[in-house]
Amino acid sequence: MTISILFRQKGAGFSIEGVFGLLATYLRTQHAVTVCETHVPNMVIRPGALWQNLRVARRQRADVYHISGDVHYLALALPPRRTVLTIHDCISLDRERQRGNRWRYYALWLLFYYLPMHRVARITTVSDKSRRELIRHMGPLAERVTVIPNPCNPRFQPSPNVFNETNPTLLHIENGEHKNLARLALALQGIRCKLLIIGPLTPERAAQLAALGIVYEQRVNLTDEQMVAAYKACDMLVFVSLYEGFGLPVLEANATGRVVLTSAIDPLRDVAGEAALLVDPTSVAAIRAGVQRLMTDAALRQRLITAGYQNVVRYKAETVAAHYMAVYQSVIS
Question: Could you tell me the Gene Ontology terms of the biological process aspect for this record (predicted)?
Fold first, then answer.
């Protein structure tokens, strides 16, 4: 069997690429299939760029085609009965609806969701929460969506440390306003700590951090090895996002042996299970109280870290790869 996994433009992100790059490795080694990985050249939504991406997809030759996320419309250029589509979330639809941009909402709804979902053989998503969102936006069309969670990369291994109670390093993953750095910065004002930010910073957010006197270090475009090192270097993951399709950083911190503060929202509470302290991400006071509690309660930290090692077992890469392999085989048959 030959499987063609199609990705968005290189450099457009790292979460989808990390997940499906890992799965490709397991599919090759454990299921003896040929996996081809192809990135489309564009991310902009313009007719010429979309047409160029569709031509790249059309040139692929495989038994099964898998669109890994974001560029859902590639389904329009692929064989319907042999194509699998993974939809990670509906954040673009929610964003346009909240902005009141009706025409842009319907354009995205049609090109990125309705037409691709109608055309493909199988649809997967990464959490029950994302499936519920798809049903809310797409109606009965989304009833056939299968949930397959993201895997945790085995690069993340236990690396015990001595928690720095007087000046801890807090890890924050940043790639948009929904990651909630603005409230986190307010919550950390006056707390002695260092904020390690992975991802781009807007000038507005950098100015806020400076005005609040937050000591921080920013890193971008990290390799897999550098991401592992960042988790090892921190004392705590603070992942108080307002919106997630899954929440992979929670598992990466669990696997490393770092205590986690995250949002009391779906799907983060499902992914974290008993392995994180949950707080209201819309409350600066709740975030601040959560950070302070984890800084001072050693027994709680140890309980959450132990639970984290157990939690990550649910998301082994070989198990997730087997689920996708079953989907591919159902398409072939």
Answer: lipopolysaccharide biosynthetic process
What fold does the segment set 2-151+316-332 form as a domain? Rossmann fold (3.40.50)
Residues 6+ apart with CB under 8 A from 308: 253, 254, 255, 257, 258, 259, 260, 275, 276
DSSP string, 180-198: -HHHHHHHHTT---EEEEE
Helix (H, G, I), strand (E, B) or coil at 281: coil
- Sheet-wide strand order for 259-263: 216-219, 194-198, 169-173, 236-239, 259-263, 277-279
- Radius of gyration (Cα) for the chain, nearest Å? 20
Mean pLDDT of 126-148: 97
Three-state helix/strand/coil letters over 112-177: HHHHHHHHCCEEEECCHHHHHHHHHHHHHHHHHCEECCCCCCCCCCCCCCCCCCCCCEEEEECCCH
How confident is residue 218, by pLDDT bands cut at 50, 70 and 90? very high
Q: Is the CB of residue 272 less than 8 Å from the CB of residue 247? A: yes
Would you call 41 helix, strand, or coil by DSSP? coil
Pinpoint the residues of the chain covered by CATH 3.40.50.2000: 2-151+316-332, 169-315
CATH class of 169-315: alpha beta
User: For residue range 224-283, what is the model confidence (pLDDT) as tens digits?
Assistant: 899 999 999 999 999 999 999 999 999 999 999 999 999 999 999 999 999 999 999 999
